UniProtKB/TrEMBL annotation:
The chain crosses the membrane at residues 12-32, 101-123, 135-155, 175-198, 235-262, 282-305. Keywords: Cell membrane, Membrane, Transmembrane, Transmembrane helix, Transport. The lineage of its organism: Bacteria, Bacillati, Actinomycetota, Actinomycetes, Mycobacteriales. This is ABC transporter permease. Signal peptide: none annotated. It is found in: Cell membrane. Belongs to the binding-protein-dependent transport system permease family. It comes from Corynebacterium flavescens. Pfam families: BPD_transp_1, BPD_transp_1_N. The keyword Ribonucleoprotein does not apply. One of its GO terms (cellular component) is plasma membrane. GO terms for molecular function: dipeptide transmembrane transporter activity. It is a multi-pass membrane protein. Residues 97-298 form the ABC transmembrane type-1 domain.
Length: 314
């Protein structure tokens, strides 16, 4: 189990990891064989056209200058120009970020809403059937769950749309209808895994001396758990939530393709298919930045839940 570090070291680790990730991603993108300008124009493009586009996009400049231009723009929220369309991708990226965040946050909220009460219930009343369901949920990938849900609720029953996306400002009812299946597909898998971790944490806490003391003083199992156990049980669960949010981001990339959702994942796959290296570079950096930010927020959450960690580091 990872031990939370001090505020300063957490922030320093985040900044260093963020910078190193930017360097690695930039170098890897430049290591891909082929001239990006020629790939963009096609194999029949003349050398003059390739040279003109390279100059226009700054591809003929020194690599160090290209890196600082890209990274500086990234920090300002300016994501540059697509090699495929030669258009500024910044507005499109921000639109896709909103879609992906809605999907990820909704899925995690639903997973926690199911996992916390289910894990607490299983810890106090073991049930082989429910435990088997959670184990099955861990084994089944989210995209397969999505396909099964579409086959049942969209194709057979016709209750929900099979795919697509409607922004909330264009009809909130349709927005929710299109959101249900992809969110449930992600949440079921994450919820099954979190349920088992919550159960394990609660069982461990219930065997502690302070819980037995509370029970000896006349408190019920539920009262002792709610009053003394939940905070301690939440510490290992917080670590797992941070890790699961990272896997949720990866799962969302696939789910967006399954349900034809215009998020970062579908944009990334499309950029890869046309070798739009500038867009791929920016989107991968966004996903890495989100993952690093989740790790930083996990450290912050530790201190909010257990102030003793802050006092121990003084």
């Amino acid at each position: 189990m990872r031990t939370p570090s001090s505020w300063g070291s957490s922030l320093a680790r985040f900044l260093l990891s963020f910078w190193l990730a930017s360097v690695i991603i930039f170098v890897l993108m430049r290591a891909v064989p082929g001239n990006p300008a020629r790939v963009s124009l096609g194999v029949n493009a003349t050398d003059e056209a390739v040279a003109e586009l390279s100059t226009q996009l700054g591809l003929d400049r020194p690599l160090l200058a290209q890196y600082f231009e890209w990274f500086g723009g990234f920090l300002r929220g300016d994501f540059g120009v697509s090699l495929a369309s030669q258009q500024d991708i910044t507005p499109l990226v921000w639109d896709r970020v909103q879609v992906s965040l809605i999907l990820i946050v909704a899925a995690m909220v639903l997973a926690l809403a199911v996992a916390i009460p289910a894990g607490m219930w299983l810890a106090q009343r073991p049930n082989a059937f429910v435990s088997g369901i959670t184990q099955l949920g861990i084994a089944v990938p989210s995209f397969l769950v999505g396909i099964l849900l579409v086959a049942i609720f969209a194709v057979r029953l016709g209750w929900l749309p099979a795919n697509g996306w409607v922004p909330p400002n264009q009809g909130f009812g349709q927005f929710l209808a299109h959101l249900v299946l992809p969110v449930v597909s992600l949440a079921l898998v994450q919820g099954a895994m979190l349920t088992r971790y919550v159960r394990s944490a609660i069982v461990d806490v219930m065997n502690q001396d302070y819980i037995r003391t509370a029970r000896a003083l006349g408190q019920s199992r539920r009262e002792a758990l709610l009053r003394y156990g939940l905070r301690n049980a939440s510490l290992p669960v917080l670590t797992v939530i941070g890790v699961q949010l990272t896997t949720l981001v990866i799962g969302a990339v696939v789910i967006e393709s399954v349900f034809v959702i215009p998020g970062l994942g579908s944009m990334l796959l499309q950029a890869v298919s046309v070798r739009d290296l500038t867009t791929v570079q920016t989107l991968v950096m966004l996903l890495v930045a989100f993952t690093l930010l989740l790790n930083l927020l996990t450290d912050v959450a530790y201190r909010l839940v257990d102030p003793r960690l802050k006092a121990a580091q003084r």
